Amino acid sequence: MKKVLLIFVMLLLAAAGAVLYRSTAQTSYVPTAQLCANGSKAPCSMVASAIGPDPLLHSGFGYSGLFGPLPTSPANDLQTPFDNMAWQMFVALNWAAASVNQPPAKGLTAPGRRVWQTYRKVSSLFGNSPVRAGCTSALALPVFYIGSDGKGNPLPNNEEYFQASTNLPLIDINGNWAIFERRVNDIEANYLLAPDGHPQQTLTTIAGQANLILNNPSGAQFTSSDTVPTGKNGSIEIKASWRIINPAAGDDPSRYYTQKAFLAVSGDLVQSGRSFCSTVTLGLVGMHIIQRNQANTQSNKLLPQWIWATFEHVDNAPMAQSPCNVANGCGTNSSTNWINQPTCGSAAPSASVRYSFYKQNGPQGTNIGPVSSGAGKTKYAWNSQQPYASGATTAATSMPQATRCWSIYPTTAQLNTQWQTALAAYKTPLQNYMLIGTQWGGNVEPREGNPLPDKAVPAMLSNLTLETYIQN
Questions:
Q1: Which of 59, 177, 260, 300 lies 20 to 30 Å (CA to CA) from residue 111?
Q2: Whole-structure pTM over 0.85, yes or no?
Q3: 158, 128 in Cβ contact below 8 A?
Q4: Is residue 128 within 8 Å of residue 157, measured between CB atoms?
Protein backbone atom coordinates (compact mmCIF):
# COMPACT_ATOMS: atom_id res chain seq x y z
CA MET A 1 0.00 0.00 0.00
CA LYS A 2 1.26 3.45 -0.84
CA LYS A 3 2.22 5.61 2.07
CA VAL A 4 1.49 9.31 2.02
CA LEU A 5 4.60 11.44 1.73
CA LEU A 6 4.57 14.40 4.07
CA ILE A 7 5.14 16.98 1.35
CA PHE A 8 4.98 19.78 3.88
CA VAL A 9 7.64 18.27 6.14
CA MET A 10 10.35 20.75 5.19
CA LEU A 11 8.29 23.69 6.31
CA LEU A 12 6.71 22.00 9.28
CA LEU A 13 10.17 21.20 10.61
CA ALA A 14 11.05 24.85 10.22
CA ALA A 15 7.81 25.88 11.91
CA ALA A 16 7.89 24.40 15.38
CA GLY A 17 5.68 27.25 16.50
CA ALA A 18 4.65 30.72 15.51
CA VAL A 19 6.78 33.79 15.85
CA LEU A 20 5.36 36.97 14.40
CA TYR A 21 7.59 39.85 15.19
CA ARG A 22 6.72 43.40 16.10
CA SER A 23 8.82 46.25 17.33
CA THR A 24 7.47 49.14 19.35
CA ALA A 25 10.03 51.43 17.75
CA GLN A 26 8.37 54.14 15.69
CA THR A 27 9.32 55.09 12.15
CA SER A 28 7.75 57.33 9.54
CA TYR A 29 8.60 54.83 6.79
CA VAL A 30 5.64 52.96 5.25
CA PRO A 31 6.28 50.19 2.69
CA THR A 32 4.48 50.24 -0.67
CA ALA A 33 2.20 47.49 -1.95
CA GLN A 34 3.24 46.13 -5.36
CA LEU A 35 -0.09 44.87 -6.69
CA CYS A 36 1.26 42.75 -9.54
CA ALA A 37 4.56 41.04 -10.25
CA ASN A 38 4.73 42.80 -13.63
CA GLY A 39 4.55 46.24 -12.03
CA SER A 40 0.97 47.11 -13.02
CA LYS A 41 -1.10 49.26 -10.67
CA ALA A 42 -3.90 46.73 -10.21
CA PRO A 43 -4.05 43.21 -8.77
CA CYS A 44 -3.44 40.57 -11.44
CA SER A 45 -3.60 36.83 -12.06
CA MET A 46 0.17 36.39 -12.41
CA VAL A 47 1.52 34.04 -9.73
CA ALA A 48 4.84 35.66 -8.79
CA SER A 49 7.87 33.40 -9.15
CA ALA A 50 10.32 35.49 -7.11
CA ILE A 51 10.66 38.64 -5.04
CA GLY A 52 11.28 42.02 -6.59
CA PRO A 53 14.36 44.20 -5.98
CA ASP A 54 15.66 43.83 -2.43
CA PRO A 55 18.79 45.97 -1.83
CA LEU A 56 19.52 44.73 1.68
CA LEU A 57 19.56 41.11 0.48
CA HIS A 58 22.64 41.93 -1.59
CA SER A 59 24.47 44.06 0.97
CA GLY A 60 27.66 42.86 2.58
CA PHE A 61 26.39 43.47 6.11
CA GLY A 62 25.06 40.88 8.51
CA TYR A 63 21.30 40.62 8.87
CA SER A 64 19.60 39.64 12.14
CA GLY A 65 16.20 38.65 10.82
CA LEU A 66 13.36 40.86 12.02
CA PHE A 67 14.99 41.65 15.35
CA GLY A 68 15.93 45.18 16.25
CA PRO A 69 15.02 48.54 14.73
CA LEU A 70 12.29 48.80 12.11
CA PRO A 71 13.31 49.67 8.55
CA THR A 72 13.48 53.36 7.69
CA SER A 73 13.50 53.11 3.87
CA PRO A 74 13.32 50.55 1.06
CA ALA A 75 17.12 50.33 1.22
CA ASN A 76 16.98 48.58 4.61
CA ASP A 77 13.54 46.96 4.33
CA LEU A 78 14.42 43.37 3.50
CA GLN A 79 11.07 41.77 4.34
CA THR A 80 8.58 43.79 2.26
CA PRO A 81 9.59 42.32 -1.16
CA PHE A 82 8.85 38.85 0.26
CA ASP A 83 5.52 40.03 1.68
CA ASN A 84 4.53 41.61 -1.64
CA MET A 85 5.36 38.34 -3.38
CA ALA A 86 3.18 36.54 -0.83
CA TRP A 87 0.20 38.79 -1.55
CA GLN A 88 0.76 38.50 -5.31
CA MET A 89 0.65 34.70 -5.00
CA PHE A 90 -2.41 34.71 -2.74
CA VAL A 91 -4.45 36.99 -4.99
CA ALA A 92 -3.43 35.27 -8.25
CA LEU A 93 -4.08 31.80 -6.85
CA ASN A 94 -7.52 32.93 -5.67
CA TRP A 95 -8.39 34.35 -9.10
CA ALA A 96 -11.33 32.64 -10.81
CA ALA A 97 -9.74 29.85 -12.86
CA ALA A 98 -12.05 30.48 -15.81
CA SER A 99 -11.20 34.19 -15.82
CA VAL A 100 -7.40 34.33 -15.56
CA ASN A 101 -7.27 36.54 -18.65
CA GLN A 102 -9.92 38.89 -17.33
CA PRO A 103 -9.39 42.13 -15.36
CA PRO A 104 -9.67 42.07 -11.57
CA ALA A 105 -13.25 43.35 -11.57
CA LYS A 106 -14.24 39.99 -13.07
CA GLY A 107 -11.39 37.68 -12.08
CA LEU A 108 -11.75 38.44 -8.36
CA THR A 109 -15.54 38.14 -8.26
CA ALA A 110 -16.50 35.54 -10.88
CA PRO A 111 -17.99 32.33 -9.45
CA GLY A 112 -16.38 28.92 -9.77
CA ARG A 113 -13.09 27.27 -8.91
CA ARG A 114 -10.06 29.36 -8.14
CA VAL A 115 -6.69 28.77 -9.80
CA TRP A 116 -5.29 26.73 -6.90
CA GLN A 117 -8.36 24.50 -6.95
CA THR A 118 -7.31 23.26 -10.38
CA TYR A 119 -4.14 21.84 -8.80
CA ARG A 120 -3.94 18.14 -8.01
CA LYS A 121 -5.07 16.80 -4.67
CA VAL A 122 -2.47 14.71 -2.92
CA SER A 123 -4.82 11.71 -3.06
CA SER A 124 -4.44 11.70 -6.85
CA LEU A 125 -0.71 11.09 -6.35
CA PHE A 126 -0.49 8.97 -3.20
CA GLY A 127 -3.82 7.14 -3.30
CA ASN A 128 -7.02 7.39 -1.29
CA SER A 129 -7.58 6.31 2.29
CA PRO A 130 -8.44 2.59 2.50
CA VAL A 131 -12.00 3.40 3.64
CA ARG A 132 -14.15 6.22 2.30
CA ALA A 133 -17.89 6.87 2.54
CA GLY A 134 -19.65 5.34 -0.46
CA CYS A 135 -22.41 7.90 -0.83
CA THR A 136 -22.48 10.07 -3.93
CA SER A 137 -23.89 13.49 -4.74
CA ALA A 138 -26.40 14.18 -7.46
CA LEU A 139 -24.82 17.61 -7.81
CA ALA A 140 -21.49 18.33 -9.48
CA LEU A 141 -19.79 19.42 -6.27
CA PRO A 142 -16.23 18.98 -5.01
CA VAL A 143 -16.11 16.06 -2.59
CA PHE A 144 -14.31 16.33 0.74
CA TYR A 145 -13.60 12.78 1.89
CA ILE A 146 -12.81 12.25 5.56
CA GLY A 147 -11.31 8.78 5.17
CA SER A 148 -9.97 6.18 7.58
CA ASP A 149 -8.29 2.81 7.99
CA GLY A 150 -11.65 1.19 8.79
CA LYS A 151 -10.69 0.82 12.47
CA GLY A 152 -11.57 4.26 13.73
CA ASN A 153 -8.35 5.99 12.75
CA PRO A 154 -8.62 8.94 10.35
CA LEU A 155 -5.95 8.98 7.66
CA PRO A 156 -4.45 11.98 5.84
CA ASN A 157 -4.64 10.63 2.28
CA ASN A 158 -7.70 12.73 1.48
CA GLU A 159 -9.07 15.75 3.33
CA GLU A 160 -8.49 15.94 7.07
CA TYR A 161 -9.94 17.25 10.30
CA PHE A 162 -6.81 16.61 12.38
CA GLN A 163 -4.00 19.16 12.26
CA ALA A 164 -0.85 17.56 10.87
CA SER A 165 1.43 18.77 13.64
CA THR A 166 -0.51 17.48 16.66
CA ASN A 167 -3.28 15.15 15.43
CA LEU A 168 -5.74 17.40 17.25
CA PRO A 169 -8.87 18.91 15.70
CA LEU A 170 -9.99 22.54 15.70
CA ILE A 171 -13.62 23.38 16.52
CA ASP A 172 -15.35 26.53 15.29
CA ILE A 173 -17.84 28.76 17.05
CA ASN A 174 -20.76 26.66 15.75
CA GLY A 175 -19.36 23.39 17.10
CA ASN A 176 -18.11 22.05 13.75
CA TRP A 177 -14.68 20.67 12.93
CA ALA A 178 -12.36 22.73 10.75
CA ILE A 179 -11.38 20.82 7.59
CA PHE A 180 -8.03 20.82 5.78
CA GLU A 181 -6.99 20.00 2.23
CA ARG A 182 -3.69 19.90 0.29
CA ARG A 183 -2.88 20.44 -3.36
CA VAL A 184 0.23 20.72 -5.55
CA ASN A 185 0.70 22.31 -8.96
CA ASP A 186 1.54 20.21 -12.01
CA ILE A 187 5.20 21.17 -11.79
CA GLU A 188 5.51 19.56 -8.38
CA ALA A 189 3.19 16.69 -9.23
CA ASN A 190 5.34 15.77 -12.24
CA TYR A 191 8.47 15.84 -10.09
CA LEU A 192 6.86 13.65 -7.43
CA LEU A 193 5.85 11.11 -10.06
CA ALA A 194 9.19 11.07 -11.92
CA PRO A 195 12.03 13.09 -10.35
CA ASP A 196 14.24 14.43 -13.14
CA GLY A 197 12.41 12.13 -15.56
CA HIS A 198 13.04 8.92 -13.56
CA PRO A 199 9.69 7.23 -12.77
CA GLN A 200 11.53 4.42 -10.95
CA GLN A 201 12.50 7.05 -8.36
CA THR A 202 8.93 8.24 -7.84
CA LEU A 203 8.32 9.90 -4.49
CA THR A 204 4.79 8.51 -4.36
CA THR A 205 5.91 5.07 -3.13
CA ILE A 206 8.27 3.83 -0.44
CA ALA A 207 10.23 1.82 -3.02
CA GLY A 208 10.60 4.85 -5.27
CA GLN A 209 11.76 7.04 -2.39
CA ALA A 210 14.38 4.47 -1.43
CA ASN A 211 15.55 4.29 -5.03
CA LEU A 212 15.89 8.06 -5.24
CA ILE A 213 17.96 8.19 -2.05
CA LEU A 214 20.18 5.39 -3.36
CA ASN A 215 20.87 7.26 -6.59
CA ASN A 216 20.82 10.82 -5.22
CA PRO A 217 22.70 11.20 -1.93
CA SER A 218 21.62 14.84 -1.70
CA GLY A 219 17.96 13.80 -1.75
CA ALA A 220 15.02 15.29 -3.60
CA GLN A 221 15.58 18.56 -5.45
CA PHE A 222 12.15 19.96 -6.24
CA THR A 223 11.78 22.11 -9.36
CA SER A 224 12.71 25.72 -8.60
CA SER A 225 11.17 28.94 -9.81
CA ASP A 226 12.89 31.54 -11.94
CA THR A 227 14.76 34.36 -10.25
CA VAL A 228 12.57 37.12 -11.71
CA PRO A 229 9.01 37.80 -10.46
CA THR A 230 7.47 37.31 -13.91
CA GLY A 231 9.36 34.09 -14.69
CA LYS A 232 8.32 30.45 -14.59
CA ASN A 233 6.89 29.14 -11.37
CA GLY A 234 8.54 26.38 -9.41
CA SER A 235 6.97 23.63 -7.32
CA ILE A 236 3.99 25.03 -5.42
CA GLU A 237 2.18 23.46 -2.50
CA ILE A 238 -1.09 24.66 -1.00
CA LYS A 239 -2.67 23.76 2.29
CA ALA A 240 -6.06 25.29 2.97
CA SER A 241 -8.26 25.35 6.05
CA TRP A 242 -12.03 25.66 5.89
CA ARG A 243 -14.91 26.07 8.30
CA ILE A 244 -18.56 25.27 7.70
CA ILE A 245 -20.57 28.46 7.18
CA ASN A 246 -24.03 28.56 8.75
CA PRO A 247 -25.98 31.81 8.26
CA ALA A 248 -28.69 30.59 10.63
CA ALA A 249 -26.08 30.53 13.40
CA GLY A 250 -24.93 34.08 12.64
CA ASP A 251 -22.23 33.55 9.98
CA ASP A 252 -21.93 36.09 7.15
CA PRO A 253 -20.97 34.19 3.95
CA SER A 254 -20.18 37.43 2.11
CA ARG A 255 -17.08 37.90 4.28
CA TYR A 256 -15.47 34.67 3.03
CA TYR A 257 -14.42 32.97 -0.15
CA THR A 258 -16.96 30.14 -0.08
CA GLN A 259 -17.71 26.99 -2.00
CA LYS A 260 -20.46 24.40 -1.91
CA ALA A 261 -19.01 20.97 -1.19
CA PHE A 262 -20.11 17.41 -0.58
CA LEU A 263 -18.81 16.16 2.77
CA ALA A 264 -18.36 12.36 3.00
CA VAL A 265 -17.33 10.84 6.35
CA SER A 266 -16.36 7.17 6.87
CA GLY A 267 -18.66 5.24 9.19
CA ASP A 268 -15.98 4.17 11.67
CA LEU A 269 -15.33 7.86 12.37
CA VAL A 270 -18.99 8.56 13.18
CA GLN A 271 -20.60 8.15 16.61
CA SER A 272 -23.46 6.13 15.11
CA GLY A 273 -21.06 3.85 13.23
CA ARG A 274 -22.71 4.73 9.92
CA SER A 275 -21.10 6.82 7.19
CA PHE A 276 -22.86 9.97 6.12
CA CYS A 277 -22.69 12.59 3.40
CA SER A 278 -23.96 16.13 3.47
CA THR A 279 -23.88 19.23 1.31
CA VAL A 280 -22.21 22.10 3.15
CA THR A 281 -20.97 25.62 2.47
CA LEU A 282 -17.29 25.97 3.30
CA GLY A 283 -15.59 29.28 4.05
CA LEU A 284 -11.83 29.67 3.57
CA VAL A 285 -10.17 30.58 6.89
CA GLY A 286 -6.49 29.86 6.27
CA MET A 287 -3.96 29.08 3.57
CA HIS A 288 -0.31 28.09 3.37
CA ILE A 289 1.37 28.84 0.02
CA ILE A 290 4.92 27.64 -0.58
CA GLN A 291 7.06 27.85 -3.71
CA ARG A 292 10.52 26.39 -4.28
CA ASN A 293 13.01 29.16 -5.05
CA GLN A 294 16.33 29.20 -6.83
CA ALA A 295 19.67 29.86 -5.23
CA ASN A 296 20.58 33.54 -5.28
CA THR A 297 23.83 33.90 -7.20
CA GLN A 298 24.51 37.39 -5.84
CA SER A 299 23.92 36.71 -2.17
CA ASN A 300 24.14 33.79 0.24
CA LYS A 301 21.42 35.31 2.41
CA LEU A 302 18.56 33.76 0.39
CA LEU A 303 18.97 30.00 0.53
CA PRO A 304 17.60 27.68 -2.21
CA GLN A 305 14.74 26.29 -0.15
CA TRP A 306 11.12 27.42 -0.16
CA ILE A 307 9.39 30.76 0.21
CA TRP A 308 6.42 30.18 2.49
CA ALA A 309 3.49 32.57 2.92
CA THR A 310 0.60 31.98 5.30
CA PHE A 311 -2.74 33.82 5.29
CA GLU A 312 -5.77 33.88 7.55
CA HIS A 313 -9.23 35.35 7.65
CA VAL A 314 -9.35 38.48 9.79
CA ASP A 315 -12.20 37.09 11.95
CA ASN A 316 -10.43 33.90 13.02
CA ALA A 317 -9.41 34.80 16.58
CA PRO A 318 -8.29 37.72 18.76
CA MET A 319 -4.78 38.65 19.78
CA ALA A 320 -3.49 37.63 23.19
CA GLN A 321 -3.78 40.29 25.86
CA SER A 322 0.01 40.34 26.18
CA PRO A 323 1.33 39.12 22.82
CA CYS A 324 4.94 38.18 22.42
CA ASN A 325 7.08 40.95 20.95
CA VAL A 326 10.43 39.54 19.91
CA ALA A 327 12.00 42.88 19.11
CA ASN A 328 11.51 43.83 22.77
CA GLY A 329 13.09 40.66 24.09
CA CYS A 330 10.24 38.14 23.90
CA GLY A 331 12.69 35.28 24.10
CA THR A 332 13.99 36.49 27.45
CA ASN A 333 11.12 38.59 28.86
CA SER A 334 9.23 36.27 31.20
CA SER A 335 6.01 38.31 31.07
CA THR A 336 5.50 37.69 27.34
CA ASN A 337 7.69 34.65 26.67
CA TRP A 338 5.19 32.02 25.55
CA ILE A 339 7.76 29.65 24.09
CA ASN A 340 7.08 26.07 25.28
CA GLN A 341 4.19 27.24 27.48
CA PRO A 342 0.76 25.52 27.27
CA THR A 343 -1.11 28.80 26.75
CA CYS A 344 -0.39 32.45 26.01
CA GLY A 345 -2.76 33.77 28.61
CA SER A 346 -5.96 35.75 28.22
CA ALA A 347 -7.20 37.13 24.94
CA ALA A 348 -8.02 40.73 24.06
CA PRO A 349 -11.12 40.33 21.88
CA SER A 350 -13.00 43.11 20.15
CA ALA A 351 -16.64 43.15 21.21
CA SER A 352 -17.72 43.96 17.64
CA VAL A 353 -16.18 40.86 16.00
CA ARG A 354 -17.84 37.46 15.71
CA TYR A 355 -14.75 35.29 15.81
CA SER A 356 -14.71 31.92 14.08
CA PHE A 357 -12.63 30.10 16.71
CA TYR A 358 -13.11 32.15 19.86
CA LYS A 359 -16.27 32.48 21.95
CA GLN A 360 -16.88 35.85 23.54
CA ASN A 361 -17.04 35.54 27.35
CA GLY A 362 -16.00 31.90 27.08
CA PRO A 363 -13.36 29.95 29.03
CA GLN A 364 -10.16 31.81 29.84
CA GLY A 365 -7.66 29.14 28.75
CA THR A 366 -6.44 29.69 25.21
CA ASN A 367 -5.12 27.29 22.54
CA ILE A 368 -5.73 24.25 24.73
CA GLY A 369 -6.40 21.14 22.66
CA PRO A 370 -9.86 19.54 23.01
CA VAL A 371 -10.16 16.44 25.17
CA SER A 372 -11.97 13.47 23.65
CA SER A 373 -15.09 12.29 25.46
CA GLY A 374 -14.45 8.78 24.18
CA ALA A 375 -17.78 8.62 22.35
CA GLY A 376 -17.77 6.31 19.33
CA LYS A 377 -15.06 3.99 18.04
CA THR A 378 -12.62 6.81 17.47
CA LYS A 379 -11.29 9.80 19.34
CA TYR A 380 -13.14 12.92 18.25
CA ALA A 381 -15.89 10.98 16.50
CA TRP A 382 -18.25 12.86 14.20
CA ASN A 383 -21.86 13.57 15.02
CA SER A 384 -23.93 12.64 11.96
CA GLN A 385 -25.43 16.11 11.71
CA GLN A 386 -24.40 19.63 12.64
CA PRO A 387 -22.84 20.51 14.96
CA TYR A 388 -20.47 17.76 13.86
CA ALA A 389 -18.25 17.93 16.95
CA SER A 390 -21.20 17.57 19.33
CA GLY A 391 -20.59 14.84 21.92
CA ALA A 392 -17.01 14.21 20.80
CA THR A 393 -15.25 16.31 23.44
CA THR A 394 -15.66 17.12 27.09
CA ALA A 395 -17.85 20.15 27.75
CA ALA A 396 -14.88 22.14 29.02
CA THR A 397 -12.99 21.70 25.74
CA SER A 398 -15.84 21.99 23.24
CA MET A 399 -14.33 25.29 22.10
CA PRO A 400 -10.56 25.80 21.69
CA GLN A 401 -10.62 29.56 22.45
CA ALA A 402 -7.97 30.06 19.81
CA THR A 403 -5.82 33.15 20.33
CA ARG A 404 -2.90 34.66 18.45
CA CYS A 405 0.16 34.59 20.69
CA TRP A 406 2.49 36.70 18.53
CA SER A 407 1.96 40.08 16.94
CA ILE A 408 2.42 40.61 13.21
CA TYR A 409 5.55 42.45 12.10
CA PRO A 410 4.68 46.17 11.60
CA THR A 411 5.63 46.52 7.93
CA THR A 412 3.63 43.35 7.17
CA ALA A 413 0.62 44.85 8.94
CA GLN A 414 1.00 48.11 7.01
CA LEU A 415 1.20 46.21 3.75
CA ASN A 416 -1.90 44.21 4.69
CA THR A 417 -3.89 47.43 5.04
CA GLN A 418 -2.84 48.59 1.57
CA TRP A 419 -3.67 45.28 -0.09
CA GLN A 420 -7.02 45.04 1.71
CA THR A 421 -7.92 48.55 0.59
CA ALA A 422 -6.98 47.77 -3.01
CA LEU A 423 -9.04 44.57 -2.98
CA ALA A 424 -12.03 46.28 -1.37
CA ALA A 425 -12.36 48.40 -4.51
CA TYR A 426 -13.39 45.24 -6.37
CA LYS A 427 -15.84 44.08 -3.68
CA THR A 428 -14.07 40.75 -3.32
CA PRO A 429 -14.06 38.82 -0.03
CA LEU A 430 -10.27 38.60 -0.37
CA GLN A 431 -10.24 42.00 1.34
CA ASN A 432 -11.05 40.14 4.57
CA TYR A 433 -7.81 38.12 4.63
CA MET A 434 -4.43 39.05 6.04
CA LEU A 435 -0.87 37.93 5.56
CA ILE A 436 0.50 36.55 8.82
CA GLY A 437 4.03 36.37 7.51
CA THR A 438 6.38 35.22 4.75
CA GLN A 439 9.23 32.89 5.65
CA TRP A 440 12.33 32.33 3.55
CA GLY A 441 15.50 30.36 4.03
CA GLY A 442 18.22 32.77 5.08
CA ASN A 443 21.62 33.00 6.68
CA VAL A 444 20.76 35.16 9.67
CA GLU A 445 23.01 36.60 12.36
CA PRO A 446 21.96 34.82 15.58
CA ARG A 447 20.83 37.10 18.39
CA GLU A 448 22.56 36.54 21.71
CA GLY A 449 20.31 34.85 24.23
CA ASN A 450 17.52 34.19 21.72
CA PRO A 451 16.29 30.56 21.56
CA LEU A 452 15.06 30.72 17.95
CA PRO A 453 16.58 29.19 14.78
CA ASP A 454 18.86 31.38 12.67
CA LYS A 455 18.42 29.77 9.23
CA ALA A 456 15.01 31.22 8.40
CA VAL A 457 13.25 34.57 8.46
CA PRO A 458 11.05 34.89 10.46
CA ALA A 459 12.69 32.27 12.67
CA MET A 460 9.39 30.43 13.11
CA LEU A 461 5.96 30.90 11.60
CA SER A 462 2.59 29.17 11.75
CA ASN A 463 -1.07 29.61 10.91
CA LEU A 464 -3.56 29.75 13.78
CA THR A 465 -6.07 27.55 11.92
CA LEU A 466 -3.52 24.94 10.84
CA GLU A 467 -1.17 24.84 13.86
CA THR A 468 -3.40 26.11 16.65
CA TYR A 469 -1.70 24.26 19.47
CA ILE A 470 1.95 24.78 18.59
CA GLN A 471 2.09 28.55 18.40
CA ASN A 472 4.21 28.37 21.55
A1: 177
A2: yes
A3: yes
A4: yes
